[in-house]
């Protein structure tokens, strides 16, 4: 997969030259002529690197860099500068610009610097190379998800503990697996445990293991999940639900890198990378004394936040069709897509259960499907909630106007004079609005009221 470079320069000839040079080197290039256009492009798709001139109309290259650093801290930026702006470019490198080159620049040096920036910041995205299998299970074209995955790819190279925040159903375990697959530990085990799904009495034994006879029912030695994950990654899901007594023991394991099985007299060394996840507000839990502060800072070396499905709606059609193709095989169904209205209903539904809820809905419609295209009726049945209606601006304005007028007429008992006064419009204009929407004031008069203007 070729790396994507966003090039920004207000000189059309320079923009064309840079684009041709980078494309010849195997990069995918998007070329824009202003910082404003670059920011708009970043909102649509996150590139792997930004190459920008310093002197631009409107926002200059330095202001563009500041915006990028604020919203995309892991995105490398290279600046092109004239001699007069070298001091600014030097200052920029101290603030995080990867490097700067003075015009006229050497073409080979430019390519070398780009390759160097990509190798340090995005090892999986280089020209004509790169393996995206580490994130293959995460289906997305959302710019927000791409930014998150770029950060995850960088984090994967270290052994730092990661805390993933996100609502239930957003895919926290999938992200943890992706980080593991992109890490040097990829060939070792990935072991997951839901800390809220196992009774407190069993969780210690499940995590740390036990020896034969440690308690009633311990008929043999048992290796815990820490030992099972040795050399690899242990994913502690819903870490916020871990009992306080066990939090103390987990902290000790993280500090000493050893586990002591229940009933054992000695500890066993373990080499495990910890990724944890929660849908709870752990800062609030700490304030209430429900989560240990020292454990929180041990787990939260790097923090990632997964967006809700409603925050990445552009992914809904992609995910729905992806799930449908997999489930059609599972159920042996000859289905190949959704009717347009059915897909619209999916794309506009609220999705409180996020991606997990979407999967369940697609599974239900697939199981019940009798036609090659999934109809709207099946989707509505599976959703069991009204879809969010998407209106054009004109339609929304017209609907608001009508509902507003109806509300005024109800409030004033059908009195046009009073309604017009509340709306701060003259009566003639108000009558025109009523006529436009086919509203008759007399319909809103209650029995016994007099017809007033």
Automatic annotation (TrEMBL):
PANTHER family: TRANSCRIPTIONAL REGULATORY PROTEIN, TRANSCRIPTIONAL REGULATORY PROTEIN GLRR
Stretches assigned to the Sigma-54 factor interaction domain: 138-367
Keyword annotations from UniProtKB, A to Z: ATP-binding, DNA-binding, Nucleotide-binding, Phosphoprotein, Transcription, Transcription regulation
SUPFAM superfamilies (alphabetical): CheY-like (SSF52172), Homeodomain-like (SSF46689), P-loop containing nucleoside triphosphate hydrolases (SSF52540)
UniProt cross-references to InterPro entries, sorted A to Z: AAA+_ATPase, AAA_lid_NorR, CheY-like_superfamily, Homeodomain-like_sf, P-loop_NTPase, Sig_transdc_resp-reg_receiver, Sigma_54_int, Sigma_54_int_dom_ATP-bd_1
Highest rank taxon of the organism: Bacteria
Modified-residue entries (4-aspartylphosphate), positions: 53
PROSITE patterns for the chain: RESPONSE_REGULATORY (PS50110), SIGMA54_INTERACT_1 (PS00675), SIGMA54_INTERACT_2 (PS00676), SIGMA54_INTERACT_3 (PS00688), SIGMA54_INTERACT_4 (PS50045)
Pfam family, one: Response_reg
Domain Response regulatory, chain residue ranges per copy: 4-118
Record flagged with keyword Nucleotide-binding: yes
Name the UniProt record assigns to this protein: Sigma 54-interacting transcriptional regulator
């Amino acid at each position: 997969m070729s790396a994507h470079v966003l090039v920004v320069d207000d000189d059309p000839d320079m923009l064309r030259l840079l684009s041709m040079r980078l494309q010849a080197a195997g990069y995918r290039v998007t070329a824009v002529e202003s910082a404003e256009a670059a920011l708009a492009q970043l909102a649509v798709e996150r590139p792997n690197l930004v190459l920008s001139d310093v002197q631009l109309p409107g926002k200059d290259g330095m202001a563009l860099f500041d915006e990028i650093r604020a919203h995309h801290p892991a995105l490398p930026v290279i600046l092109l500068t004239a001699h007069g702006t070298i001091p600014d470019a030097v200052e920029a490198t101290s603030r995080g610009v990867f490097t700067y080159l003075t015009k006229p620049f050497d073409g080979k040096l430019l390519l070398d610097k780009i390759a160097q920036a990509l190798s340090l910041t995005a090892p999986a995205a280089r020209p004509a190379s790169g393996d995206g299998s580490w994130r293959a299970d995460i289906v997305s074209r959302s710019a927000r998800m791409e930014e998150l995955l770029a950060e995850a790819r960088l984090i994967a190279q270290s052994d730092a503990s990661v805390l993933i925040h996100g609502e239930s159903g957003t895919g926290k375990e999938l992200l943890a697996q992706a980080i593991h697959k992109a890490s040097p530990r990829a060939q070792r085990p990935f072991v997951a445990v839901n800390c809220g799904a196992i009774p407190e009495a069993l969780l210690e034994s499940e995590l740390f293991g036990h020896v034969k006879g440690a308690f009633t029912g311990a008929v043999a030695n048992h290796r815990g999940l820490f030992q099972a994950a040795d050399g690899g990654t242990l994913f502690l899901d819903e870490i916020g639900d871990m009992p306080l007594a066990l939090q103390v023991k987990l902290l000790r394991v993280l500090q000493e890198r050893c586990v002591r099985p229940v009933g054992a007299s000695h500890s066993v060394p373990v080499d495990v990378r910890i990724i944890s996840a929660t849908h709870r507000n752990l800062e609030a839990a700490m304030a209430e004394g429900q989560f240990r502060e020292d454990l929180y800072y041990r787990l939260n070396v790097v923090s990632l936040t997964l967006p809700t499905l409603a925050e990445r709606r552009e992914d809904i059609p992609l995910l729905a069709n992806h799930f449908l193709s997999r489930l059609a095989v599972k159920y042996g169904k000859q289905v190949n897509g959704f009717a347009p209205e059915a897909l619209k209903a999916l794309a506009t539904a609220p999705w409180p259960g996020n991606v997990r809820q979407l999967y369940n809905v697609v599974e239900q419609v697939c199981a019940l499907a009798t036609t090659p295209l999934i109809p709207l009726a099946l989707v509505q049945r599976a959703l069991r909630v009204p879809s969010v209606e998407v209106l054009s601006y004109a339609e929304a304005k017209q609907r608001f106007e009508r509902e507003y007028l109806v509300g005024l007429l109800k409030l004033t008992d059908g009195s046009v004079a009073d309604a017009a006064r509340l709306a701060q419009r003259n009566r003639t204009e108000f009558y025109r609005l009523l006529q436009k929407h086919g509203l008759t004031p007399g319909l809103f008069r209650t029995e016994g009221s007099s017809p007033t203007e």
